[in-house]
Amino acid sequence: MAEVTSQKVRAHIKGVDQTPRKVSLIASLVRGRSVADAMVILEHTPKRAALVVKKAIASAAANATNNHNLDSKTLQIATLSVTAGPRMKRFKPASRGRALPFQKRSSHILVEVSGTEKVRKKPVEKKADVDAAPAKKEEKK
Known about the structure:
two-stranded antiparallel sheet; elongated; 5 strands; 28% helix; alpha+beta
């Protein structure tokens, strides 16, 4: 019987132009679920951050199935973290010629997906056909 091993596969999305607070609300909806369930939940979530989190999970799932030979039916979200990215400092015009500072926040998303490896089939051995390549007899004259 083949050994079943599980692996963790990562996907990063950096520099998302949304605050980490808004993105982490969506991430908490799907944290710890299976990839298929998470995709259905995110498709029906009416928030802008849902699209970005969905893309991150889809990227991790594609990495797992294509690069690491994991079974797509067994994929679970092991880790889904949202951290703060760089902030851009800007100013907003106010009355009487003043300028009020504000920051445009960005976030980084890390997704780790775990699953089991696909069972590889043994290659079929080819039988040597004796009849396919008849041996030529050399005749002596």
